[in-house]
Amino acid sequence: MDLFSDPISWTEKLNPIVVQYQERKHPLAYQNPYQLMIMVILSAQDSDANINKIAPALFNRFPDFESLVPATPEDLFPYISGVRHFQMKTEWILETAQMIKTDANIPLTMDTLTQLKGIGRKSANVIMKELQIKPAVGIVVDLHVLRVAPRIGLIPATQDGNKAEKLLMQLLPRDIWEAIGMCISFLGREICRPTNPKCSICPINQYCLYYNN
Hints:
The structure is a single chain. The protein has helices at residues 10-21, 33-43, 48-61, 65-68, 73-80, 86-100, 110-113, 121-130, 143-152, 161-171, 177-190, 209-212. The protein contains 12 helices and no strands. The protein folds into 2 domains: 3-24 and 138-212, Orthogonal Bundle (Endonuclease Iii, domain 2), CATH 1.10.1670; 33-130, Orthogonal Bundle (Endonuclease III, domain 1). The chain is mainly α. It is elongated and about 60 Å long. α1 (10-21) packs across α11 (177-190), α5 crosses α6 (86-100) and α9 crosses α11 (177-190). Residues 42-190 form the HhH-GPD domain.
């Protein structure tokens, strides 16, 4: 089976996972845009489960950006010391609070979000997707997407998230950008695991380069 000469478009091939996952909320258990932004910053190189675990106490003490403005690193440390690179992330969060000052000022464009410390294109895409900012200007590319997209044959292997995103944006139509990144991510979390992937139950296994080789 020559997947690359297959006349069926990748939009059609990926549709089963879009149907399966497009309504799924991000695993970060946020309640509002402020919490989402802080949790996205904290989740870099850490697990969503760990961030969800520390979040209730953190947000009980700091319920909004206004409450973070007068905070010091020592105020924040007890609540996020279980997070990887917490000292650096504390600096990012407090600097962001000083810039934003109030939840009403949370930026909602790619350019303004990526000007903030700790927020790159991946994080900005997550925030904009979850807050349903349209039209989508990019595709969420997390560690799961970096693994799964090359495995199924979408793009060449790369560890550069921005490069992977650019390749996906060139390959896929804009109308599925908003959904497809997290759909691939959920596939990677649940089925296309790093080891022992559950290929037999994958809804797109007939088009998968890894499965068919």
